[in-house]
Amino acid sequence: MMGLMSLLLLTGSVLAPVASQDHPATNSTCGVGMPAQSPLILQDSPQSNSTGDFSLSVPYPPSTVYENNYSDTWYLAPIIFVNSTGNFSGTVSFSTKSSSPAVHAFIGLPGSVTITPGSGSSTFVNIDFSNLTPSGTYTVTVIGESGSLRHSVNIPVTVIAPHLYPSFHLSIDSTEAILDPGSSTTFTLTVTSLNGYSGSVSLSVKSIYDDLLKPHVSYCINPIILTISPSKPATAKLRIEADANTPIVVAGVVITASGGGHTESLPFSIQVGPHFDMTADPSSLTIQAGSNASSVLTLTSYANFSFDASFYVEQWFPGAVCYMGAPGILPPCPSLGVTLNTVTVPAHGTTTALVRITTDPRQTPGKYYITLNSEGCACAKLPSLTLNVTVTPQTSTGNLP
Q: In terms of C-beta distances under 8 Å and separation of at least 24 residues, what long-range contacts does 235-238 make, across chains too?
């Protein structure tokens, strides 16, 4: 996706499933089926039968989306809960419908769940739409089916478009500065016109941490006034300088642009002191289930002392409704085997570490994200990086149980 992607947190009150009508299951012999109906008015199967039933609910529907001038696409992912009623036992499969082609919806993983009497499970629905979607309330309908049983629940998606008044957008080529004592660095600020804005924009930089910064660290913007128009953005330079006696400092400043009644701010982090960089080769891997792979980490030190770098690992499998520590509530999250040993990093030197990744023959296929977080250095910053790992199915599972 192009541009900045915005993620909306899903909170709100409990949404009761929309009331529905009953209809008989289709009888292929007599040709009896669902009566004609308008789109998205889905009818449920009878609520009681000899084998029980299931129910769908959305306890946390999405909040209202307020579009802005800086995002391209919005993403929502409300969770769908499925519960057995009576003596129902079986597999429930899901599908979706949207009231508008402007709002896209599809079921995440799993696409079907199996439940037993007295139990339940869950999945989620992916919803996305453009930042240019007109204001209004749209409806995404999730349908669950198991044999002749069919139930649905409606999820309202309310969108409020921005007022397209003339304004501007402030950006910078990095959001942090990492310096050694006695060094300096420069960054570029860019102010771009939005919705026809023409005029001057004033720039400033301030910090509430001046008691940490000002004795040793200076910062300034030049020039402080820019003139922009719809076809002519303008730039300024932010210079950060640390004197030779600067201790370890981690603090932040706020860069502000103001003009024409519009104000926009950017946070910016300043870190002075020993630090090191970490890269991975390769950073993206494709592994067939049951196979292994590895990546080489390169650690480059800018510290005047050696240290032992250790690591802790975090994993993410997008699309899975799961929980790392409570398999009784949700199924355990799919994960990969990851091993990585502690390494000694020399002063102002470079070393490598090997990341070994193992998979099970029945590993869930898909994209995994492995974040490696470093520890062990009294540094201004401890770096981390993420490996993208794609697991493909085995071509043959043989006699696996």
A: 235/188, 235/189, 235/190, 235/191, 236/188, 236/189, 236/191, 236/203, 237/186, 237/187, 237/188, 237/189, 238/172, 238/186, 238/187, 238/188, 238/189, 238/205, 238/268
User: Whole-model pTM?
Assistant: 0.52
Note the CATH number of domain 4-160: 2.60.40.10
Q: CATH second-level architecture of 276-392?
A: Sandwich (2.60)
Side-chain-side CA neighbours of residue 305 (13 Å): 9
Mean pLDDT of the chain, nearest integer: 82
Q: Which CATH architecture fits 167-272?
A: Sandwich (2.60)
The residues of the chain that CATH labels 2.60.40.2310 are: 167-272
Residues in the chain: 401
pLDDT in tens, 71-103: 678 889 999 999 999 889 999 999 999 999 999
Answer whether residue 180 shows pLDDT above 60: yes
Asked if residue 147 has pLDDT above 70, the reply is yes
The segment(s) of the chain belonging to CATH 2.60.40.10 are 4-160, 276-392
